[in-house]
Write a structure and sequence with these properties.
It is a single chain. With 248 residues, the protein is an all-alpha fold. The protein has 3 domains: 68 residues, Multidrug-efflux Transporter Regulator, Chain: A, Domain 2 (Orthogonal Bundle), CATH 1.10.1660.10; 56 residues, Multidrug-efflux Transporter Regulator, Chain: A, Domain 2; 110 residues, Globin-like, CATH 1.10.490. Helices cover 71% and strands 3% of the residues. α9 runs antiparallel to α10 and α11 packs across α12. It is flat and about 70 Å long.
């Protein structure tokens, strides 16, 4: 157990902040001594860490409380989504810093920047995955998927991440089996249906092409194989077989 002062110093927050979290029911200490001292457990520290991740992403405290009290809340799923969102934020900040440095240099050296260069760091549509998807399947499908994602609130995005991760975990559990087997094809159909429900209309051919990207692009392979080594290759093979069977 840790006392409130120790937790505040460890997490870089104030004692007043921790007391406020207790008062609003966001983070209740594991124990309160008869003299009123708050004591925090290891589980409390995990909860505090997740609260601070949400705060960094701009979630208000009341929304964080609602999310974490939801019966469907999954800590691992939340962490995975938070990682994704923080990486996106990191990339945007990196672009902004690079733009600032370029602007400072142009001011010092009297270099002229084009209008496009002046605002390049403010464009948030430069995700390499989105660019590749647009090239493969066209703007309409990607625009529709992005618009749908933009309409989701924090709870809905967490639920979406939970559903996606559950499919990945199911596939990872059978990744050593034949991707042509019925069990593998039943599981990969869940992925096909998930993509079509949430990210636009995927034809079997586009689905197969996406699977190829999983093994041709090391970024996809690395992310997918976090659920189990070899999962990306297994999914690519299963997706290709799914497309072939669908065309028969």
């Amino acid at each position: 157990m840790m006392r409130i002062k120790e937790v505040a110093e460890l997490a870089g927050v104030s004692i007043r902040t921790l007391r406020h979290y207790d008062e609003i029911g966001l983070l209740k200490p594991a124990e309160v001594s008869p003299s009123g001292y708050r004591h925090y457990s290891e589980e409390n520290l995990k909860t505090l860490q997740q609260i601070l991740f949400f705060k960094e992403l701009g979630f208000p405290l009341q929304k964080i409380k609602e999310i974490m009290e939801s019966p469907s809340f999954d800590r691992l799923g939340a962490l995975e989504l938070q990682r994704h969102l923080l990486i996106e934020k990191q990339n945007r900040l990196g672009n902004m810093i690079a733009l600032i440095e370029k602007t400072i240099q142009s001011e010092k050296e009297g270099m002229k920047m084009s209008s496009e260069e002046k605002f390049a760091g403010f464009r948030f549509d430069s995700n390499p995955y989105a660019r590749e998807a647009r090239e493969k399947w066209g703007d309409q499908a990607v625009d529709a998927a992005e618009a749908k994602m933009a309409r989701l609130d924090g709870d809905e995005k967490l639920a979406l991440a939970d559903e996606m991760n559950e499919i990945y975990r199911e596939l990872a559990a059978i990744r050593h089996k034949d991707p042509r087997a019925q069990e593998a094809q039943t599981a990969i159909r869940k992925w096909f249906d998930f993509l079509n429900r949430h990210f636009g209309d995927y034809t079997p051919e586009a689905f197969k092409g996406l699977g190829q990207m999983y093994i041709e692009d090391s970024r996809f392979t690395k992310n997918i194989d976090q659920f189990g080594p070899g999962l990306a290759a297994f999914m690519a093979a299963a997706m290709a077989e799914f497309a072939n069977q669908t065309h028969q």
